[in-house]
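hey can u run this one w/ protoporphyrin IX containing FE bound, need the structure tokens asap thx
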Amino acid sequence: MSTAELPKRHYLNADYNIWSWLLTTDHKRIGILYMISLTLFFFVGGAAAILFRVELLTPEADLVVSPTYNRLFTLHGVVMVFFFLVPSIPAVLGNFLIPMMIGARDLAFPRLNLLSWYLFMAGGLLAIWAIVRGGVDTGWTFYTPYSTTESNSQVMAMAVGVFVAGFSSILTGLNIIVTTHTMRTQGMTWFRLPLFVWAHYATSIIMVLGTPVLAISLVLIALERGLGIGVFDPKLGGDPLLFQHLFWFYSHPAVYIMILPSMAVVSEIIPCFSRKPIFGYKMIALSSVAIAVLGFLVWGHHMFVSGQSVFAGLIFSFLSMLVAIPSAVKVFNWTATLYKGSISLETPMLYALGFIGLFTLGGLTGLFLATLAVDVHVHDTYFIVAHFHYIMVGGAVMGYLGGIHFWWPKMTGRMYPEWWGRISAVIVFVGFNLTFFPQFVLGYLGMPRRYHIYPEEFQVLNVMSSAGASILGLGYLLPLCYLIWSLKYGKVAGPNPWKATGLEWTTPSPPSTFNFDEPPVVTEPAYNYPPLDDSSLPHETSDPTASTPS
Amino acid sequence: MDTSFRLFPDAASDMADQVDRLYFFLLAVSSFFTLLIFVLIVFFVLKYRRGAKVNRYLTPGKSVLALELTWSLIPLGLTMIMFGWGANLFLKLHDSPPDPIEINVLARRWFWRMQHSNGKREDQALHIPVGQPVKLRMISEDVIHSFYVPAFRVKQDVLPGRYTTLGFEPNKVGTFHLFCAEYCGDNHSGMKGQIIVMEPAEYAEWLQGGPSEAPEVAGKKLFEEYRCASCHTSPVNPRCPPLEGLYGRTVKLTDGRTVIADDDYLRRSIVDPAAEVVAGFQPIMPTFKGQLGEESIFALTAYLKTLEAPTPGAGQAGEAAIGDTPPSDTDSKEADSKEAGPEPAPSRDDEPRLPAAPSLDPPRDPSPPEPPSKENPAS
Ligand code: HEM
Ligand SMILES: [Cu+2]
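ok here u go:
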């Protein structure tokens, strides 16, 4: 962090007018566009959560009546899943970083990339329009025949919104796959790729294969609502379980769309702040692919009590257990990377360690749900709500925030205020556990999800959860404030403030529009941090040349 | 029901105790790993913090394969135990014990209606005796609901258009929550009730109180009212398959498939007769979809189950029985031994009673008794 000057020309100031942003094909600018829109959606979804959490303070319906409550949790679920979590890391960080990480000037299809942002925005605006027009009360899962026969409101608009946003995700996935295959610079072999790229590659496969199934299910819903064709409604000769199969065939793998990129971020942060190559590089890379593949085989574990056959239940339970193994391997690998490292706890590292804790708990509770007889009891209770928040909020959002902090200097050229960053990481972690841990207990006690009126004996735990939610809310607001502040007042970062390895750190911060003047040549494996001996690493030395034990 | 704060739910069935035991095993395993990871991370972070004077030398090339195998295989073993144990209990849950008390459950937004074997009905509450297996036959009239009794650790979705079943055996007297666990619209969280587990004697007394009409009797009336008998008469009308002794048998269909004549089949044959036509017959039966509510169908099928097969040799058109499983005779016995005959007191049956016209949809139909036909029944 020596000479503190921003580069004169970079991708942010290359052009000033609004069209240069709205018509940009620069992957970095598109990443920023996504970041702004996702932040917006996140706080819309969050506001709904805070509202219904306040409602849940008491066993009666005293803040909102049931139709409003139902629309709130649907709004929260739809926005958080389809308009925040699914695109979050791939669209923001993936977009921004993948070309730089592999030494390319841009993604393979820059215009397609811009188109996916427009599709995403169109989908998002349709969804918002559906809400303004009265809202949807199906839950984000749109279960039939409720969604096709009973739900009163704007299901069509919402389904079209999600459908359109789905295409955005397919295009992003395609772009990433093709980019990874064709745009790697000289010397960037598959096993020299940063794990970030590996995980995004696996994620993209899921996006491209899974999302069309979601799109089909939504089209079928629209057809059944609009034209009365009998696909799902038994009154019309349809099968009510068919929708659940279609839906979960996409939505279970979609959980990995949310979590794999987050694992990817953590796999970058941990080596950097331990100054060590990651432990078991190949195992981590391949386990991402294993998770992506296995993820397609386990959708039926959402349906143990749905009325599917007992035999199907057994098979899905068995396969679900197998997914636990690559996930466990990753956790052990990250932990082992810390061993004999030189560890410093900057904000990204705090988020990454928090991620490991929450993901571990979320993953282990997943085993409860894969275990048939136990799932029968906790299915559709708050145990589920707690579990998926540990994975999706505890996992995916922690990873997202960690990544934003880690690459913030690269994206903006400035540092965020470190002290505030650490405070926010701690507040988020504490608030998160206070919000969601009590929900495991509530779930085992038997409180069903999507209830806003509940028996009195559940109140104490609900109050704890709501209290935690306010802390968590604060934790999420903090970064919003100080990151914006840092745009103007943050310390100038320099090209590589963390002394990290990786091609993106060899560019100026912020990078120029074309990333590299000359295509870089790669000669060494990823995470080639110099070997450490019995003393701490002097802050200045970097430039690794020696090879390291693996 | 105790409404004070607690951290663990009531356990009022054998299943509950067994599920809890498995739950504690899972809890132990996950606590162990959570703690392990937590302790390791904190320990490493403290010991190897930047600037600390510690030995950081890693022996190069030291094999890590053993380590990686260990931490893959141990979790694999543990998850297989979880799978086996959970699957075993799940199979038990789906076993039907001999001689359960059978109760029909109808779900509609937003209430649960229970119908006991003698026809006694109740809403939002289910009375059952302690220590006896209970089997619910459930169906929904609108969207998907889910029958959930936390104290028994059981749950089963209730689907429209198809029966699902749920069995349990309470082992504690008391009052427990019944919830709807599948989101079903505005008043979803109001769709709850109570499970009241009673001593068998009390239960027997409770069951006799109040108006009831045995479903077989109600079913017989419907059978006449809807003129089913105009076709399904005995002695056999050559155009229609006879219904005597049908329940539980294997039926051969026109398209070559065979089905077992269970509750679901009987129900489908009433609401969608054209979908599964018995081999040798024409699809002339009108549909009763929209005319008969699920409760009436419960009653009709209960009646059909009482129709015993005529004794062999009685000139039965060998319609479709190939497997010839004898009809489960528990049902018919039950019907015979029904003491105090049907009480005519009209029970609250709020489904639309349509006029007894055979059908509403004109094109396909048929006033059933039609001139003798050109086509003849098979065999
Ligand atoms: C990134 C952050 C979050 C994500 C991705 C997320 C996601 C979700 C999803 C998908 C649902 C299911 C909705 C449904 O059942 O249809 C849900 C429900 C819920 N969320 Fe969140 N959530 C997030 C943050 C929060 C926060 C901050 C709170 C608390 C303040 C919260 C509280 C809840 C609760 C209580 C429910 C259950 C609603 C119900 O079942 O009635 N969530 N969330
Ligand atoms: Cu319901």
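The first strand of chain B starts at residue 101 and ends at 108. anyway lmk if its weird
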